[in-house]
Every structure is written in C-alpha cells, then in structure tokens.
Amino acid sequence: LPAAPPDGLTLSPPSPRSMVSLVTAMLVVHAFTPQRAGELPRIDRRRGRSASIVASAIPPSDVDRSMVLDDRSVAFNNALVDAIKGGLDMAYEGREVPRFYVLETLARVPYFAYTACLHFMETIGRRDTTEMMRHHFEQSDNELHHLMIMEALGGADAFMDRFVAQHLAFFYFWFVCLLYFARPQMAYHLGQVIEEHAFATYDGFLRDNESWLRENPAPQVAKDYYEAGTWAPRMESLYDVFVAVRDDEAEHSSNLGCMSTSAVGAEMRECVIHASEDLAS
What we know:
Blueprint: H1 16-32, H2 71-91, H3 96-123, H4 130-152, H5 159-182, H6 184-208, H7 210-215, H8 220-226, H9 238-260, H10 266-280
Helix pairs in contact: 2-6, 3-4, 3-5, 3-6, 4-8, 5-6, 6-9, 9-10
C-alpha cells in the first residue's frame, strides 16, 4: 500500500452526517438479516375464509422466542385499533357505506408501508424481498378494489369523509413504516387486527341487512373485478359483493397472522408461498 495518497487525491475524515447515515444503514440491514439459515420450515396454516379468524401460523418449536410477539405488543395493537374503530363507529353511526370507505382507505395503508420498507431493504442490498413485495402489492390492489366499490356506492361523496380518511391514512402510513423497521412482526400483527375488525364489521353488516342487500344490484366495478376468470363467483347482488369483500378480509388476516408469528426472512416468505397455494386451490 502507498504511504501517501496519489497526487491530486485529498483524503479527509468522514463527516458526522455520513457516519450517522452509515451506522443507520448498518443497523437496519442487521435488523432485517435472517437469524437462522436452513431450508424453509413447515408451517401449519389454517385459512379463515368465511369462518372465525384465528392466528394462522404455529411457529416451529425451534423459533427464537424473541421473534414472537409479546403480550404487551399485542395489547398495544389491539388497544390502538379498538380506539380508532370505536371513534369511527361513533362518528359514522347510521352511515355504513362512508364508514366502509374510511375503513378501506386505512386497510390499504399497511401494504403500502410494508412494500416501501421492503423496497428500501432491496435498494441497500437485500435480494430476498421480491416475493413479499409482490404479495403485498397484490393485497393492496385487492383493497383498492374494495375502496372503489365503496366509492361507487357513494361512500366518498362527502368532502369531510374524504378529508378524514386521507389524513388518517397519511399519519398511519408513517407510523407503520417506523413500526416495520423496529419490529416487522408487530407491524404485521397490527394489519392483522385491522383485517379482523374489517371481517367482523362486514359479517355483521351482512347479517343485519341481508334482505336489502339481495334486492340491490352489484356495482359494475365489483363485477369487473370479481367475475374475471373461469371459476370466478357471480356478483348478482350487493349481498354477493359484500360476501366477497368479507372473505377477502379473512384471507388477509390469515396471511398477516402467519407473518406476525414468523421469524424475519425464510419463515415470512413461507407465509407468502402458503398464501399463493391457498389462492390457487
């Protein structure tokens, strides 16, 4: 090695800002590095479609227990979602479709946040996030069509409803991003709790309004989305639409439940593989 830098090259110590950036990037990479090597573990997953929603993954016995959510994290997520949902229920009492519009606006946000964080990890060198990003994009696209259905039904007609939904979504996005970088399992569990509430909300709405829903036609956006494909269900009425939306929320909750109880890396990718197999079946 030369004792001095070549002519014309000036060496200077790194600035404090560059050192902070480097350390931050190293910490983030370390946090997302899979903790265990080996082939993908087998995960016992149960779907929650049109049934009570349960945690959809049983972590293998050799999983590092620190990777599984603790009771305080679960309690925090439950309390946060209960508070938001309770406030929306009070504010939108008797206005079901606008409430669904706000709910669907928020339901999309976690998938945007997950994808943004995974894209950042890919940018700084991770190459095992592609399947998860694609999966979360598909989930966000599904939620987009739920949102478009609610808009077609008049849920976004009032300025104040749009204002509330969009501002809640803005702050919620950044909260989920921070949570994902700190603890991905907790971020996935938060999404799971939201989807569970969505499932329960739509299920109750179907029970209480079955006759009215069966008498009203499905909006075209729902037909275009759900009737595509050979084995697609027929959207004969609004009842069929809300059944499909409810069942989608059950599938999302089941998958997020799998990811919230899995170690970062291979196990989370295994959840995506199981989700793809369920959809194919």
